[in-house]
């Protein structure tokens, strides 16, 4: 049964955030809010957690997770950025964008694209997500919470608790977070290519 944390959407209670992070450090899988929609998250080193997220969403081994960061310094440790990418991505973050970039050696091989050695990274513009990330002190391995067979994601934490109570360790509810995924920009060729239009304005790329 998942623990349920009802947190303030813009000023999350530090005690609740600390409890969520303690669970993550103990290899929990959580549902948490972002600036585009709710997501599933676990620590990067939690192999079992990654497998659990795949099982929850009925994904295969080819699914690429996103590494969700608290700031640009953390993001820069995970991916290689040339000057143009640096400027454009820095101006768009935090925000509802996922950027696919060449991975640094900091990224475990199992999480990078097998051929391209690339990985998706993002910095959410969400007070609750950022509070969790700052308290944790490392990126979260994450995947959008869109369930198989559903046309739309669940937009409220209580819905997630009701539906996924048996397969999650914690649900962090911060109210409605919408139903649009991030806009995905692939930068692996050296120039931006918008591969999915979502909550972020794609025209800036």
Automatic annotation (TrEMBL):
Pfam families assigned to the protein according to its UniProt record, in alphabetical order: Sua5_yciO_yrdC
Q: Which residues form a coiled coil?
A: none
* YrdC-like domain location: 14-200
Cite the Gene3D superfamilies for this sequence: DHBP synthase
From which domain of life does this come?
Answer: Bacteria
Fetch the NCBIfam families from UniProt.
L-threonylcarbamoyladenylate synthase
What PANTHER family does this protein's entry cite? DHBP SYNTHASE RIBB-LIKE ALPHA/BETA DOMAIN-CONTAINING PROTEIN, THREONYLCARBAMOYL-AMP SYNTHASE
Question: What is the official name of this protein in its record?
Answer: Threonylcarbamoyl-AMP synthase
The lineage, from the top, is: Bacteria, Bacillati, Actinomycetota, Actinomycetes, Micrococcales
């Amino acid at each position: 049964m998942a623990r349920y944390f009802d947190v303030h959407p813009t000023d999350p209670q530090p005690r609740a955030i600390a409890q969520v992070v303690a669970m993550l450090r103990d290899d929990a899988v959580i549902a948490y809010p972002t600036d585009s929609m709710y997501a599933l998250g676990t620590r990067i080193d939690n192999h079992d957690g990654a497998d659990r997220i795949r099982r929850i969403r009925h994904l295969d081994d080819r699914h690429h997770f996103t590494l969700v960061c608290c700031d640009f310094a953390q993001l820069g440790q995970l991916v290689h950025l040339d000057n143009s990418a640096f400027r454009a991505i820095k101006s768009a973050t935090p925000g509802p964008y996922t950027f696919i970039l060449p991975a640094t050696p900091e990224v475990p091989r199992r999480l990078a694209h097998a051929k391209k050695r690339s990985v998706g990274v993002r910095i959410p513009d969400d007070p609750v997500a950022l509070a969790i990330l700052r308290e944790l002190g490392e990126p979260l391995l994450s995947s959008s919470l869109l369930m198989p067979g559903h046309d739309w994601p669940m937009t409220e934490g209580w819905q997630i608790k009701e539906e996924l109570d048996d397969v999650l360790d914690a649900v962090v509810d911060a109210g409605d977070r919408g139903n649009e995924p991030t806009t995905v920009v692939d930068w692996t060729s050296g120039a931006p290519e918008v591969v999915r239009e979502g909550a972020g304005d794609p025209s800036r790329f």
